[in-house]
Design a protein that fits this description.
The protein is of the alpha/beta class. It has a single domain, classed as Metallo-beta-lactamase, Chain A, CATH 3.60.15. Helix content is about 20%, strand content about 30%. The protein is globular, with a radius of gyration of 16 Å.
Length: about 220
């Protein structure tokens, strides 16, 4: 498995020649230049997770790539002419040799006065490869057997204590920090240090920001 942190919540996952892009949002730069994608996955409807303006450009450059999204997002994408398949919580879909399974169902609470929207966490498995989990914007689902976790560092819906408890609940071998677009470098370092100190002993916090594609096994 090779993982690239493109920016914020956007990750490129590569396994045995299969290339999957997750959450190409407005806080991320350069994702529209990627080619050779087999699928684009979207966890929920917020603009930092999918950019409606640049998504068509990305799909045009990746003819044949499947667009798979949380059901509410899929409805909206189809309404604007982008063919998207919904992935409901509990459902799985195959992309080459990968299996993607949706978990959860709801976005984390931002405030009691803000209605909750749909959100699916994505568990990606392949024979002989680490199991990867991108939770979108929620800490509610902690599936078992996760080797590599994309852990959101900072968000209006999250506090450090909740982030730490989420990582402890999932207990991955590797935690890759994501969802960091609201942090300056100093603040990001504070989150990383605390996550390293307070996370499970078995969990390695591996920062991939600016590192390019990293092999994970």
């Amino acid at each position: 498995m090779r993982l690239t942190h493109i920016g914020h919540a956007c990750l490129l996952l590569e396994v045995d020649g299969v290339r999957v892009l997750i959450d190409p949002g407005a806080f991320t730069h350069g994702f529209e230049e990627l080619t050779g994608l087999d699928a684009v996955l979207v966890t929920h409807a917020h603009i930092d997770h999918y950019d409606t303006e640049r998504l068509p450009t990305l799909l045009e450059a990746n003819d044949g790539a499947r667009l798979i999204a949380e059901p509410e997002v899929a409805v909206e994408l189809n309404r604007v002419g982008l063919e998207a398949a919904p992935l409901h919580p509990g459902e799985s879909t195959a992309i080459g040799g990968l299996t993607v399974t949706a978990t959860g169902g709801l976005h984390a609470v931002i405030h009691d006065d803000i209605p909750r929207i749909g959100n699916v966490g994505l568990v990606v498995t392949a024979d002989g490869e680490p199991t990867f989990f991108h939770p979108g914007d929620s800490y509610e689902s902690a599936p078992p057997g996760i080797d590599v976790l994309g852990v959101p560092l900072s968000a209006p819906w999250a506090a450090l204590k909740e982030t730490v408890e989420f990582v402890r609940a999932v207990a991955p071998r590797i935690a890759v920090p994501i969802h960091d677009g609201l942090l300056n470098p100093t603040g990001r370092g504070v989150y990383l240090r605390n996550l390293g100190l307070l996370g499970p002993e078995r969990t390695e916090v591996r920062d991939l920001a600016g590192a390019g594609a990293a092999g994970l096994s």
